[in-house]
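Researcher: Here's my situation. A collaborator sent me these components and asked whether they could plausibly form a single complex. I don't have experimental data yet, so a predicted model of the whole assembly would be a useful starting point for our discussion.
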Amino acid sequence: MARRKGVLVMDAEAVETAIQRIAHEILEQAGDDQTLALVGIRTRGVPLAERLANTIEKLGHERPPVGLLDINLYRDDLSMISDHPVLKKTEILFDLQDSNLVLVDDVLFTGRTIRAALDGLTDLGRPARIQLAVLVDRGHREVPIRADYVGKNIPTARDQRVDVWIDEVDGRDEVRVHQEDSDSPDARGKA
Amino acid sequence: MRLRAGHLLGIDGMEADEISLILDTAEGFAEVGTREIKKVPVLRGKTVINFFVEPSTRTRSSFELAEKRLSADALNFSASTSSFVKGETLLDTLHNLEAMAPDFIVMRHSQPGAPHFLAKHSRCAIVNAGDGPHEHPTQALLDAFTIRQSKGSLKGLRVAILGDIRNSRVARSNVYLLKTMGADVVVCGPPTLLPVHMERLGCTATHRIDEAIEGADVVMGLRIQLERMKSGAFPSLREYANLFGINAERLKRAKPDAIVMHPGPMNRGVEITSEVADCDRSVILAQVTNGVAVRMAVLYLLAGETSSEASA
């Protein structure tokens, strides 16, 4: 396990609370809309979407279907980066057409990932509405995109790094902020 | 991630992690092929020249479709229409193609090593689409992808490759790939079409088809080119079919869940009977479908710049 550095901004309990609250907010908006569906952005958006779906089910509603979206084919910087990111499978097994969709990701930063995700979704169908849920909004948008549901707003400096660990992927739930340094040991998180 | 060589010239020399990377990436592109809109914008603005000095329909079409699904611009340049017939050298042709600033050249040539020559002199990424009897890397990759689809993994499988091994780039690339990925390979053909050096590549060689098929997980037939008969490699098509053709009776020796493959085009009734080619264990058409996804993956992985570190 990588050494834990930086300031702890969310522990496992805070992550769980955030998911609970977002689930409630989604339901408040959606009511008993049968077309509610979640799409997690690979990698860490996927377990978050699954947990939101489980929570929504526990609150007495039908479990919304969860899709997996890989946005790498829609990035706007593919021609600028030397190594293409590893492509993973997009798996959306329900009909996007006319669905009430909530896109789920771990960190909202520049907004470019979400822009790519919107492009990707457009190729797969035409949802009636797309909303965005993120665990952390750290600011510094480069495109006009905002989140509808935010777990926690974390004010950061541009050169800071937000690392997110999600239990299903990393073995624990945690969010930390630290100063970016040159020998960053892993490629965790988007920012 | 990208491919270390910056080109795809052959399977020989590639390592297992690179092969796995291509196959894993192809999974993502296979999904694109099942969508209603079968197009992604990854290679927007990139130009691919399909430089086919030897005639080919299916490989070229497969590459062309892969390029189109990646939103690249594809230009076909074939032997019959090229200045080759007017006596231009390969190097001059390359310089002329490069003057049009392509990002990739996909090349089919009758001379082994022609793509390697191009790679040495070219600024763009070269993909070998078959160089004489030497290698056909994308075919071996799509075969591996198809095997993985049915069997989950390549490791420990017994793969029988049957037919004209001597003249087959498909056989050679497959042997390299399957050995690297930990499969057992047995090659089989008439003595005239089975070079003695094959065992040096790490596979078993036999002239008895029953022995080759025995216990196989994968039975792969190769196309017999009718010209070979004229050159005296075997006396008649009927005799070839009798001694080396894959039929239902022989297939019984393979594992009950064995799959049947063929790179096409098939000579029905010669190297494979229609009964076998059309049976539910045949994955011959899946090979064609997977070919597009695998070629998309190769182009995608070659597309990065050759410069410094990535920051995702």
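Model: Some features of this prediction you could bring to your collaborator: Chain A has four helices and eight strands. The domain at 10-77+87-158 of chain A is CATH 3.40.50.2020 (Rossmann fold).
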